[in-house]
Amino acid sequence: MLAAPPLFSSFPRSLRVGALAALTLALTPACDTATSSDDAGSSMGGSGGTGASPGAGGTGGSGGTLQSSAGTGASAGQGGTIGAGGSSAGAAPHAGSGGSAVGGGGAATGGSSGVTGFAGAPQPMVSCMGSFDTTPVSGTQSSVTVDSSSNKGNLPHFWDTFGTGELPLFLRTDRNWGQTLKDHVTDGVRNLGVKRLRQHGLFHDDIGIYHEDSSGNPTYDFTKSDQIFDFFVGLGIEPIVELAPMPHDLAADPSKTVFDWNMIVSVPKDYARWQELITKFVQHSIERYGQDTVNRWYFEVWNEPECCSNKFWSGSTDDYFKLYDYTAAGVLAALPTGRVGGPVSSQPAELTKNSMIGQKFLQHVTTDNYVNPGHPGSLGFFAYHAWSFLDGSVNGYFQGLDLLDSFNQQNTNIAITEYGPTWEFGLTDEPQETEQGATFAVQTYSDIVQRCTKDNRRLPIAYSWWVISDIFDESMYRENDPFIGCMGLTSRENIHKPVYNAYRFLAQLGTQQVAFNISGAAGLGGMAARSPDGGVQLIVYNGQNPGKGPSNETYYQSADATSVGVTVSGLDPQFPFDVTAYHVDHTVGNAYTVWQNQGRPDMTTMMDADWQGLRAAMDSPAEPLGRALCGSTFTHSFQLSSPGVLFVKFAPAAP
Predict the structure, then answer these.
(1) S-S: 623 plus which of 242, 261, 336, 581, CB 3.0-4.6 Å?
(2) 40, 18 contact by CB (below 8 A)
């Protein structure tokens, strides 16, 4: 049988252009004002539509190819109100009829190639209209200084990876879950810079890739997985592919399952057939999407094999190493340059303590191989999870680096493929749903960046918040509440949580780190960056008095707001900037607090006004500090709550 041509090249031209535009949008700051009067809309917008209040979809730029057509917009880059629309089927009364969770329109195309105040780039398109604020900030409790002319090295956005639960959810038609999940992912690409996704369930029987016929011969069917990976590739997403769980017909004991959706955690009855399954999947992916595309994917072997008394892997540690070797051989047989990683342990503590699976795994993979005994195995990246509050999320990364260095693996990168404030579901106030989660995300990434810069150590390739959407199915939730006690950035009813705003800020950071220093009150930190267009951004968190996480459900103690004096120097005095600040805290960019103040009503009693209140409060509003301002130094005093996040951006002034 002849190999099919790569799917991407066989798409209609408009769809290929749309996919490329989607990737471009993923790398473009989401909230920057468009710098062109061209009215072409983004080619990846979801349907704008009009839903019942409060689910009305907004207006958007013209066009739309990947998702259904966006509404018409009056000006370039005028996207729909993000999150204002409901799920596309309007499943819930408050979701809106036909409104998209993503809304229409997007970034403008064409027009000027951009502006920047740095050498070798176009000159400003507008004149200075005023001067920066230079009010003294010496009286503030804390101070932040940023030297925008410095260069502290590249700042890769390793926060661009997210989990999505199990793959079968993308195919769910009940309650419109599959489409809502796709809407949330599409929104993430547009507004959060999502580049990679990682999820469970690829070889689950609901996807149906592997079966055996009546004679016991393997058969393969990629129909359902193609629907999902077509969606990923069309958006420019480069997945971290978790190669798990065990198909029923390949399991030594298919009765060993976990979760309500019966994920089989058995060892294979035949490791050679498992290897063949891996090779078939990778080969099929190459035939469908092209080798260059699949070569950008990461292949992760299983999930938390050491955890919880064989909850996620019924075999021994040595059985996992055997599975890893056969999996790596299967990937490399189809893609010799493929990147395969493990051991995907549950916490940093498991690397060198408790099960010591990290140390044992590296000892094995650097010296032996079940497929080719006596020879080292293959390690394309080192993967594990960081479920242990700040000690795990920050210090745990450096524990992994130290362990790799001890095995002379200084060129092996780390991918943290699950992390968050807590692995627990259904807490009274889930920290992922409050300002606690927003502060936690910014602190984790900022502290890792600053420590790696100080000690000249490599940054992770991925640090994946678990998960992007409350379309998720692993535990019991408060099904009647708008906030169900889950970990997503966006609720099932398309309500953004505070952490969504934090990731929207992070997505707008530039890719060149500049000097950032902070002094004063304890518990503050952050980072600053410069973008190719000359823009400058800084993000500050206030996480005073961190708690101990799950032991007491406390993550950051609330404290009085702190005054923070921000000084940004090194700016080109002839180059005009639009300066804007944003906050997220207990009262700003926080729909959860509004729900609490409403008396925590469940959805059976909520009125339209209640939903309107949540939607009006969910996104952090812009706080303009000046238009087309110039000067070499900017100073300004801000109030920053605890816990809370401040984001300030200097965008090249728009005409």
Answers:
(1) 581
(2) no
213 touches 219 (CB < 8 A)? yes
Which residues pair with residue 143 across a beta bridge? 519, 565
DSSP state string for 519-556: ESSTTEEEEEEE-TTS-EEEEEEE--SEEEETTTTEEE
Query: Distances from the Cα of 82 to the Cαs of 38, 103, 532, 559, in angstroms?
Result: 21, 6, 26, 31
Considering the chain, what is the average pLDDT of its residues?
Answer: 83
Tokens at 59, concatenated:
């207006």
The pTM of the whole model exceeds 0.85: no
* Token pair 């990364």 in the structure block, residue: 397
Q: Which of 411, 403, 310 is nearest to 358 (CA)?
A: 403
> What is the spatial distance between Cα 580 and Cα 634, in angstroms, rounded to a whole number?
12
Higher pLDDT, 20 or 608: 608
Strand partners, 383: 343, 415
Close Cβ partners of 509 (under 8 Å, ≥ 6 residues apart):
155, 157, 527, 529, 531, 537, 539
User: How many angstroms separate the CA atoms of 293 and 286, rounded?
Assistant: 8
For 395-405, the pLDDT digits (tens) are 999 999 999 99
pLDDT tens track for 314-358: 999 999 999 999 999 999 999 999 999 999 999 999 999 999 999
Q: What is the pLDDT of residues 367-395, one digit of tens each?
A: 999 999 999 999 999 999 998 777 788 99
* Cα separations in angstroms, 240 against 2, 131, 161, 200, 461: 28, 47, 9, 10, 11
Give the pairing type, strands 644-652 and 536-542.
antiparallel
What sign does the CA torsion over 419, 421, 424, 429 have? negative
Buried b (16+ CB within 10 A) or exposed e, 132-169: bbeeebeebbbbbbbbbbeebeebebbbbbbbbbbbbb
Cα gap 377→396, rounded to integer Å: 25
* Residue 372 phi, psi (nearest 5): -130, 75
> Which ranges constitute the DSSP H helices of 242-369?
271-289, 291-294, 317-334, 349-352, 357-365
DSSP category for residue 391: I
- Helices assigned H by DSSP within 163-253: 177-191, 223-234
Place 81 in a pLDDT band, splitting at 50, 70 and 90: very low
CA 508 to each of CA 29, 161, 239, 571: distance values in angstroms, whole numbers, following the listed order: 4, 15, 22, 19
